[in-house]
Amino acid sequence: MPSSSNPVQTSDFSQRPMNFKPLSKPIDDPDLATLYAYWVRRCGSRPMPCRADINPKDIVPVLPLVFIADICRPLRFRFRLVGTAICDRWHEDLTGRWLDELDFDGKLEAVLEQYASVARTGTPRIDKEEFVNEGTRYLHYQRLLLPLSEGGQMPNMLIGIQKAIGIDGYLTAMPKRM
User: Fold this and answer.
1) Which of 33, 69, 128, 150 could form a disulfide with 27 if both were Cys (CB 3.0 to 4.6 A apart)?
2) Beta pairing class for 125-133 and 76-82
């Protein structure tokens, strides 16, 4: 993949307005529910809030689990901000990294499509992922993806929350070399 992409500007998309579509199922995790409720309040009468509408002071309890990703063209996602709990579980600071350069143990295409669907439609979504990262670290989490937009119409960023399910992030046994 090329290493340079430009953040999407609202003018890069057709100017058709998006309609707000709430999540189809209730959120059972209190941290995901906290970010979602905050995002809905920040929407006001718009389909999605702008990045400037998001004040970290309003979501302090969940900040370690939160990330913001730029939507770039050609369609790629670059992490602008990644919470400490996420970085601790991945054992690296993901800030500035490209989503398509991370190791999802064969699940990269599915993860990319999850992000792309929110970028294309502006519809929030929740997904659960389970895999071994780079052959050594077990990760099992649920993730909420929410669109942000400069003009309130088409997404140019995603804000999300990634929370461990059970005990994840532990080292798995390394395969024995012959």
Assistant:
1) 33
2) unpaired
Nearest-angstrom CA–CA distance, 165 and 64: 15
pTM for the whole thing?
0.79
The Cα 115–Cα 7 span in angstroms is 15
CA 56 from chain centre, in angstroms, equals 16
Distance of alpha carbon 153 from alpha carbon 169, whole angstroms: 37
Q: Are 165 and 79 in contact (CB under 8 A)?
A: no
For the stretch 17-69, pLDDT in tens is 455 566 777 888 899 999 999 999 999 888 999 999 999 999 999 999 999 99
User: Domains of the chain (ranges plus CATH)?
Assistant: 27-164 (3.30.450.20)
